[in-house]
Design brief:
Blueprint: H1 7-11, E1 32-33, E2 38-42, E3 48-52, E4 58-63, E5 73-79, E6 82-87, E7 99-104, E8 110-115, E9 121-127, E10 130-133, E11 141-147, E12 150-156, E13 168-174, E14 177-179, E15 187-192, E16 198-203, E17 219-224, E18 231-232, E19 241-246, E20 252-257, E21 265-271, E22 275-278, E23 288-293, E24 299-304, E25 310-315, E26 323-324, E27 333-339, E28 345-351, E29 355-363
Length: 365
């Protein structure tokens, strides 16, 4: 299942950007409520989830040194009310320990990244009760996702010209060794399924530091389904596409520009037979962020359900409009990051006093 952020895009979307405001007047509402179908449960635990598998195992990270600078994270897993710290890479304490879990497969193996002895960020896999360093000495790498024991992410090639993002190369780790699938400079794998299908992105811009402007990027999505060659996902009419998730049927979701300037955007769904198309909704051109899709085709993400409010939603299928997910009691905003094949959704909610806690949404029979 996804990683994301699949954690990359999600990590770029702070909860502040989804803050619920109280309108001074009545507004049009673009989403029907999903409250009768979905129940939100506050897990009562301060950690940031990234992925959930079909057994209900949730992974993510939590702050290991609250109130201290610099902030350090530790990778964690959660299941049935028990939060477990996964630890750090060997000798990481000599460089400042830090670790984040990004994905979990159906066998409970976990992908992620952490600080290594060389001071670089290294991809890791957690299996058999320990973290295994997948990185190379002196090389920056990151594990974004995992499917059937194979970790997907990127390594950083310092010989490539350009800024740090341009130096990325898509990478797959299997059995402790890695290969470089197609994708080119500036690429990374963001999600993969248990069959080995994966989806990634390539940054085609000459600069990714922001000097070109936020909307002048030329990001494209690509996927490999089965033994087929890597395919470009296309766009919804603009110059960029950011995929975030892929399900067991090879269906991809993400966000794409709809205008030549790259300012307006919309959510998309893509499959090999039909290609890319916009998800239903009345939000075309405005903020909309799908984050994951399960095998049944249920899609979750963030959406403007009114003129001033963006919040968590579920598209029951790629042809259905978004439904607003309920917030847990007392929460002011929520963000969803992953959904499993049992329709369990994991995310994080914000409460008064700058409090954040993990949230689980379950679909009612």
């Amino acid at each position: 299942m996804r990683s994301l952020a699949r954690s990359i895009l999600v990590a770029a979307l702070p909860l502040a950007g989804l803050a619920v405001t109280t309108p001074a007047h009545a507004e049009p509402v673009f989403c029907k409520p999903a409250a009768t179908q979905w129940k939100a449960v506050d897990l009562g635990t301060d950690f940031t989830p990234t992925s959930i598998n079909d057994q209900g195992l949730v992974v993510g990270s939590k702050v290991a040194n609250p109130g201290q600078v610099p902030q350090r994270n530790v990778a964690v897993s959660w299941k049935a009310g028990t939060l477990k710290e996964l630890g750090y890479l060997p000798f990481a304490f000599l460089r400042g320990p830090n670790s984040v879990a990004t994905g979990v497969d159906e066998q409970g193996r976990i992908s992620g990244y952490g600080t290594a002895l060389d001071g670089e960020r290294h991809a890791f896999v957690y299996r058999d009760g320990r973290l295994q360093d997948l990185g190379q000495w002196g090389v920056h790498s990151q594990g974004n996702t995992i499917g059937n024991g194979v970790v997907g992410g990127y390594i950083e090639d310092k010989k490539i010209e350009g800024d740090l993002l341009r130096k990325r190369l898509s990478a797959l780790w299997s059995g402790g060794t890695y290969g470089l699938p197609s994708g080119g400079a500036g690429s990374q794998i963001v999600d993969m399924n248990e069959k080995g299908d994966w989806v990634g992105s390539t940054n085609l811009s000459s600069s990714t530091t922001g000097d070109d402007g936020a909307f002048n990027r030329a990001e494209r999505g690509y996927a490999r389904i089965g033994q087929n060659t890597t395919v470009d996902l296309g766009t919804l009419g603009g110059k960029w596409t950011l995929p975030v998730g892929i399900n067991e049927k090879g269906v991809v979701v993400g966000t794409s520009a709809v205008d030549a300037a790259g300012v307006l955007e919309d959510a998309f769904v893509w499959d090999a037979a039909t290609g890319m198309r916009a998800l239903p909704g009345e939000n075309r051109g405005r903020f909309v962020r799908p984050t994951a899709i399960n095998t049944a085709g249920e899609i979750i993400g963030s959406y403007h359900c009114s003129d001033t409010v963006a919040g968590p939603v579920v598209w029951p299928s790629p042809t259905s409009g978004p439904l607003a997910l309920p917030l847990p009691a007392g929460a002011t905003s929520s963000q969803v990051v992953d959904i499993n094949d049992k329709s369990a959704v994991i995310g994080v909610s914000s409460y008064p006093g700058s409090v954040r806690r993990a949230t689980l949404w379950t679909k009612q029979p």
